[in-house]
Amino acid sequence: xxxxxxxxxxxxxxxxxxxxxxxLNGMKIAIIEKDKLGGTCLNRGCIPTKVLYSKAKxxxxxxxxxxxxxxxxxxxxxxxxxxxxxxxxSTLVGGVSKLLKARNxxxxxxxxxIVSAPxxxxxxxxxxxxxxxxxxxxxxxxxxxxxxxxxxxxxxxxAFHIDHSNIITSDEIxxxxxxxxxxxxxxxxxxxxxxxxxxxxxxxKVTMLELLPSILSTEDxxxxxxxxxxxxxxxxxxxxxIEVDNxxxxxxxxxxxxxxxxxxNAEKVLVSIGRILNTNNLGLKEIGVELxxxxxxxxxxxxxxxxxGIYACGDIIDGPMLAHKAxxxxxxxxxxxxxxxxxxxxxxxxxxxxxxxxxxTVGMKEGDKELENIKYRVGRFxxxxxxxxxxxxxxxxxLKVITEEETGKIIGxxxxxxxxxxxxxxxxxxxxxxxxxxxxxxxxxxxxxxSEIVPEAVLDSIGEAIHKYNPRxxxx
Length: 476
Prior knowledge:
Elements: E1 2-9, H1 15-24, E2 29-33, H2 39-44, H3 46-64, H4 78-102, E3 106-116, E4 126-132, E5 138-148, E6 152-154, E7 167-168, E8 182-186, H5 190-201, E9 205-209, H6 221-233, E10 237-239, E11 244-250, E12 253-258, E13 263-266, E14 268-271, E15 275-277, H7 284-287, E16 310-312, H8 323-337, E17 351-353, E18 359-363, E19 376-382, H9 387-391, E20 398-404, E21 410-416, H10 420-432, H11 437-441, H12 453-460
Parallel strand pairs: 1-2, 1-5, 2-3, 5-16, 7-14, 8-9, 8-14, 9-10
Antiparallel strand pairs: 3-4, 4-5, 6-15, 11-12, 12-13, 17-18, 18-21, 19-20, 20-21
Helix pairs in contact: 1-8, 3-4, 3-5
């Protein structure tokens, strides 16, 4: 039985990054993936969705037009777009495989099960049985450390009768070859809003059904309202505070029955109401790994479980389900196994939502409980006051920044507008180094750029934005 320094179970953004980092740290690595390397992110999530998003955005520019250009006719093939999406995915998945092989990581394709508890005497954290995909054979390997990074899957609600044909999840919707005439989307969170934007641009009649009082309920309230206004202006029907009773498939579509008795007919129904954790059938309970009632693995600040030598990363532990957070988790685990004590810290964790225009957020936002005991200021700057935004005809949007009153430290930001996720990346870097208002002000920004919005919004929190009148600056 071959022994490894680390066995990584799961080849998604947490697992493959942990494997690559550990290989760079000079360790002998095995990685086990039962499906395709890259996990949900590369195959069924972030990357394929953004291909469709970019195409939908381009289509919007063709339909809307820009100053000085008149486009009378255009056409597109959605099947060709899907084929291109598959090419992008294949390229990136192949790239991950090449990197792993180049760093001498042993790749096993199959399902993993931990069959024995740690053997400290022989420096083994686990013996892992692999049910191989290709020849249906079994083999066993052992490892001094184990990193569990098995991710999550779309939630299956029995009453929704998901048939993966007319009633579908975010997995299947990425592979349909034609645009549905109409689509009902259950859930108006990140996934629901992103697909609503995409399919609306391609001509589907979109109806969104949300149980909560507002869409994007976890975001800043102003962002939620602004996004609602934009989606509604595109004739997307948004129904909030609505409960779905059940969904039934028909030959050429599906029927959504609401608790009110109302029926909604659609060619496709997308169920996007959350994800479940892939922590079953791994042998975790059998060897004593501690999980909570929802199947989430409990870890410490080093991403180590209650059993020494066994680590967990990504969706299956605490924190938001984000690919970049998962990769960060993988690096934290790898570094600690290598003997470099690193503690995870999610306080400066950015995230993005790709509607049109897109949303970006990092740190705290108005309404967060953490702000209740902090004296803070809020600054904001509009895209309509930025030269590059006007040149690009992207005047819709704004950036809000929260600064600590006593220290001037930047503690959060959120915004919506062209390339907002990129602007948030700059603020994330400033926050990572405990940057202040003055750090943002005296960082020289090229002109003209959208990035000039950053120091303006930051300075506005103390009433000193250069290109914005703020009465506060004259009350000092």
